[in-house]
Structure formats: structure tokens, C-alpha cells
Design brief:
This protein is of the alpha+beta class and 127 residues long. 56% of the residues lie in helices and 20% in strands. It has one domain (27-121). It has helices at 37-61, 65-83, 95-104, 108-120, 122-125, and strands at 11-20, 23-33, 84-87. Helix 1 packs antiparallel against helix 2 (65-83), helix 2 (65-83) packs across helix 3 (95-104) and helix 2 packs parallel to helix 4. This is Phage tail assembly chaperone. InterPro entries: Phage_TAC_4. It comes from Pseudomonas soli.
């Protein structure tokens, strides 16, 4: 019988189909951080609180769409930084490149985070 550890690996890889304007999505391999259920819940709680705070601030300050978008871009870049440790883009994996990815492609953050969440789904794990 094969031996297997209960503990998960600290990182895992998954393919992310990065949307390209006027072209087909491009498959890019991302290396993600593993979080246990409690850590993942804490992470998602933080994201929800940050999004709510940004929306409240935007309303209170009467932010322009450009200002609101700049805040959203930063929130999304922070989310990607929280769950990724690398990628197979030609560009070096660093904070500036993550910000460029989020800024240049409106669908990229959702694609990355959806692939991350899908890796945790019970169906993918084989029930």
C-alpha cells in the first residue's frame, strides 16, 4: 500500500487561462500557496472586509470611477500576491509584474482566483 501524508504540500500548480483582449485566453501555469481551511477562511474574510471598506470609502468620498478602479486594482493585486508564489509568464514574478497583470487585463484577477478556488473544490479533489 502506498504511503501518503495527511499534510498538504506548501505549494501546488494549476493552469490559468489568462484572457487576452481580441484573442483567445492563454494558458499560464501558476504556482499557488496552500492554505488550510481556517487560514483560507481568514484570508477570504480579509478580502471581503477590504472590498467593503473600499466601497464605503468610495461612497463617502465620492470617488471618481478612475479612483475607484485604482483601488480595486490594488486590492486584486494584493489578492494575487497572497495566493501565488510564481508563474510561467516570460515576465519575472514580482509585485510590479503582478500589478501590471491586474492593470492590463480586467479578466486576469478573476481567472487567477477562480483557478485557485477550483483547485480546492471537492470534485477536483476526487470527493
Amino acid at each position: 500500500m502506498a504511503k501518503i501524508k495527511i499534510a498538504q504540500n506548501p505549494t501546488f500548480t494549476a493552469e490559468v487561462k489568462i484572457p487576452r483582449v481580441g484573442a483567445e485566453p492563454v494558458p499560464v501555469e501558476f504556482t499557488f500557496r496552500y492554505f488550510d481551511r481556517t487560514e483560507l477562511a481568514r484570508l477570504y474574510d480579509g478580502w471581503n472586509q477590504a472590498a467593503e471598506a473600499h466601497a464605503e470609502k468610495a461612497k463617502a468620498e465620492g470617488m471618481s470611477l478612475e479612483q475607484f478602479t485604482a483601488g480595486q486594482i490594488q486590492l486584486q493585486a494584493d489578492q494575487i500576491k497572497a495566493v501565488t508564489v510564481g508563474w510561467s509568464f516570460d515576465d519575472e514574478f514580482n509585485e510590479a509584474a503582478i500589478l501590471d497583470l491586474v492593470t492590463t487585463c480586467i479578466g486576469a484577477p478573476q481567472a487567477v482566483l477562480s483557478a485557485y478556488q477550483e483547485a480546492y473544490s471537492p470534485g477536483r479533489l476526487g470527493n
